[in-house]
């Protein structure tokens, strides 16, 4: 009944987001009143029974043993240490033990174990785009995500480096809803925070070794302990991880990777109340090309061929990817990250904090554009008039060289007073140099021939070779561009909260951001420089009620912002910049620990209203040029439910379900003009946002027990489900079906030694991950392309800790 009521309420509102304060004032009151009534009903129906059972259990039984109690997880989502159940945010936290047991090795496996988090990727580890609450990014031409990754509080710039290997991670926090007030930096829909392990005050360490199918090999080692007793502590770690991928071979890792990475940390603690934590990370990755298949379409005639797939994209039982050009090896990536966090307590009331960050990222990518062995058909003409056709390999090369620096200063209260406050300022500077050549293999073309595509595009012999590549001079670039982007962001932020005697806490947060972006375009004979400054406010208001130590009710309203940017190909100066994207998110929730802290039930309901959505649309001057423009409004409504239970000694059950009904309200997507059916009408109002699943579900069951007096064991199973995903802003141009993945693991533990056998994708689900289309360089047409999933993978891990 309550779900039906919720759906009916969702259908009644179709209006876009409005201005910052005035038009939202009354709307906020209506939302909170309606949602409060709804939440009361849901909570009453769902929790009354269990609350009664909990009370009965409390009266008739002794307190639960420690092994049956749910874990108290401390998080820092609001820039201070709090237990996760006392934070009025929808937040999921994964501890170090859960990371190991669930086999979380990257951001993709994190998404499979986190409520409301999914990934949108065009392929490989270099295009990773997290999606929270259905707020996918319609235009991904810029390098900014709307769900950023932070490592120890420092922002991870760009998209190419966020899917890094994990080493010495203590905890991962995934916060849903805008965090722009405290975090800034594109925390539009949420944020992902990695917290590394601090150096310990006693000697500790460990090592692990993993082997598996498809040439999987991994090794990790770490050591931590004091350098100066009670004052200076250190941590070092190193790892190697290789996998050829489900479709790889000896010469090319299709979907695979090889990574070498290391990390270190120093911790200084003084009796004066001063503490400093220095962290560093270095990684060198070789990431193979993504497993993609380009195939013939079944609809939309483009350049003489069917260029789209209408319906569910096909699965492939035995795809033939042997024809990938071995010179298109994927991505070589080198990453360095470092941060310094210093705090000084002034008495027992005030803390001063300085957080500094410095990061670099270098990438070089070569991809096989036709995704198939036969190449693409091109025509050529000789000086004597003779013509011919030849199949040529088309490659794309991209390179990026970036660095960023950041500095934040904070002052905050740390007393037990009912009044708490925080104030701070920050700076962020970013520089990204990129180049993007396209190459055609002219080896089979007769000497002196003039290469001309079937569509009439001319590729003259003698064009510039791809720079810094191992390719031969027979490869020539068809197009070549170089640019540099610079960002300088200044922000001031603060928060104030007060807890009344009746355990009601009111909190307000506000950030003012001034962001200057500059674009340098390196043309054939000159350099063009353009800059733009964006200024905006991002507030957050929260009201929560701590009914007792195990029950929290809260409501919040927050504004999220994603940065604006530039269209490098814009024909006029007015069309170069596009503005930030904003949303207002309204949320109510309940957090509860029941049955003597053996059952946890957390529920959050949200309504998101988006304004200025960044969407691809044609230039008003030249309709054949497509640009990112603020061309839409939208909304997303739904809820997130998380359950954790310890019904018996050694048994832990977890589950989550999220529904995000995200749709455009008023929007135009001019990129659809590539398809004949949409050349005169590309209004996508009322359609779902692309590349995101409306329904997400995950669950796990883990049982630990003693096998012998000296041997413990455990078994674990995880299941992950996401519903269908449209590949485009219209459901008529193809989608991928929902997919279900099951993982399993069994392990034995003796003292500090642990061995486990595991399998990922147990039932070998082959449902594609993404429906998309690709540009054909020879005809400038399009063709449907499917991204294939990782298949079943089996392995074993042995680890030792002390």
From TrEMBL:
<dbReference type="Pfam" id="PF00593">
    <property type="entry name" value="TonB_dep_Rec_b-barrel"/>
</dbReference>
<keyword id="KW-1134">Transmembrane beta strand</keyword>
<keyword id="KW-0472">Membrane</keyword>
<dbReference type="GO" id="GO:0009279">
    <property type="term" value="C:cell outer membrane"/>
</dbReference>
<keyword id="KW-0410">Iron transport</keyword>
<dbReference type="InterPro" id="IPR036942">
    <property type="entry name" value="Beta-barrel_TonB_sf"/>
</dbReference>
<keyword id="KW-0798">TonB box</keyword>
<dbReference type="InterPro" id="IPR039426">
    <property type="entry name" value="TonB-dep_rcpt-like"/>
</dbReference>
<feature type="domain" description="TonB-dependent receptor-like beta-barrel">
    <location>
        <begin position="320"/>
        <end position="762"/>
    </location>
</feature>
<protein>
    <recommendedName>
        <fullName>TonB-dependent receptor</fullName>
    </recommendedName>
</protein>
<comment type="similarity">
    <text>Belongs to the TonB-dependent receptor family.</text>
</comment>
<keyword id="KW-0813">Transport</keyword>
<dbReference type="Pfam" id="PF07715">
    <property type="entry name" value="Plug"/>
</dbReference>
<keyword id="KW-0408">Iron</keyword>
<keyword id="KW-0998">Cell outer membrane</keyword>
<feature type="domain" description="TonB-dependent receptor plug">
    <location>
        <begin position="84"/>
        <end position="190"/>
    </location>
</feature>
<keyword id="KW-0812">Transmembrane</keyword>
<dbReference type="InterPro" id="IPR012910">
    <property type="entry name" value="Plug_dom"/>
</dbReference>
<keyword id="KW-0406">Ion transport</keyword>
<dbReference type="GO" id="GO:0006826">
    <property type="term" value="P:iron ion transport"/>
</dbReference>
<dbReference type="InterPro" id="IPR000531">
    <property type="entry name" value="Beta-barrel_TonB"/>
</dbReference>
